[in-house]
Design a protein that fits this description.
Jelly Rolls; Arc Repressor Mutant, subunit A; four-stranded antiparallel β-sheet; 9 helices; six-stranded antiparallel β-sheet; 46% helix; single chain; alpha+beta
């Protein structure tokens, strides 16, 4: 699928709202004249879009294009709660083709926060609230599109991402691959293969780059001595630190600091 041009904006054609569908409700509008974002939070039912029939379950979201011929019903024992808003993209040719059968939202909690705030901002009735509501509809659409393009990470990948985040937060710790592998129940070689596949580099190289990236910030933004920076980031030999820093960045630590001070920000 072609990427969505992020400059694409939308025009809202009605108030974004949550609806609890009434007993006996069924939906059979004329063919749509604009786009309809229709997200199910609770309940069960069926929706027929053209010749396609889809089971309605919590989490399923539809971005229905103009011309859609719709007929939907709900299970009377499990009434629907939906969030809906009609809109038009201001650059229709750049709007992505969402699947007609809808998609099951992965991060429902986040999407509900966006939708609730979208409704409340619009209800304020002032220009700033309206602009924020428009922006939130666009953010919802971007999030839906991102979920279509990015597969849901596995629980194991989530654990590896947490490990990488911890390394970035504390690069100066004495990280051992064996201990990291033990945290996720893998051998050193298994862990290294899975880590490299996800991060694009080995665990040891990832730690080194995290340390040197932090070193760059400390050199440019603090008055810590180079020796103190090296020590704080887990280096026992300042000369080894300097060689590694230059190999990765192209500058010795002292050269980077001097160049930053030679050209102070205006």
């Amino acid at each position: 699928m072609e990427p969505w041009n992020l400059s694409t904006v939308v025009r809202l054609n009605n108030m974004p709202r949550f609806h609890r569908c009434e007993p006996g409700w069924h939906w059979a509008p004329p063919p749509l004249s604009d786009f309809d974002l229709w997200w199910v939070l609770e309940g069960r039912g069926q929706i027929r879009i053209g010749g396609t029939t889809v089971e309605i379950r919590p989490g399923r979201c539809f971005v229905l294009p103009p011309g859609s011929d719709i007929h939907a019903t709900q299970d009377p024992d499990f009434r629907l709660l939906v969030f809906a808003v009609h809109f038009d993209p201001l650059a229709p040719a750049q709007f992505p083709p969402f699947p007609l059968e809808g998609q099951v939202v992965q991060d429902r909690e986040y999407l509900e926060i966006l939708a609730r705030r979208c409704e409340s901002f619009f209800q304020r009735g002032d220009p700033t609230g309206w602009l924020q509501s428009v922006g939130l509809v666009q953010q919802i659409l971007l999030h839906l599109w991102d979920e279509l393009e990015q597969p849901l990470p596995s629980a194991f990948d989530h654990s590896l991402n947490q490990i990488m985040q911890t390394i970035r937060l504390e690069p100066g710790r004495r990280w051992k691959v064996e201990e990291l592998a033990g945290q996720v129940g893998l051998s050193r070689s298994q862990f290294t293969r899975r880590f490299q596949k996800l991060a694009g580099t080995s665990p040891n190289t990832f730690v080194m780059r995290a340390r040197l990236d932090r070193a760059k910030h400390l050199l440019l933004e603090t008055d810590m001595s180079i020796a103190r920076i090296a020590e704080a980031l887990g280096y026992q030999d300042i000369y080894f630190f300097s060689r590694q820093f230059k190999a990765l960045s192209g500058f010795a630590p002292s050269e980077l600091r001097k160049s930053a001070r030679r050209y102070p920000p205006e």
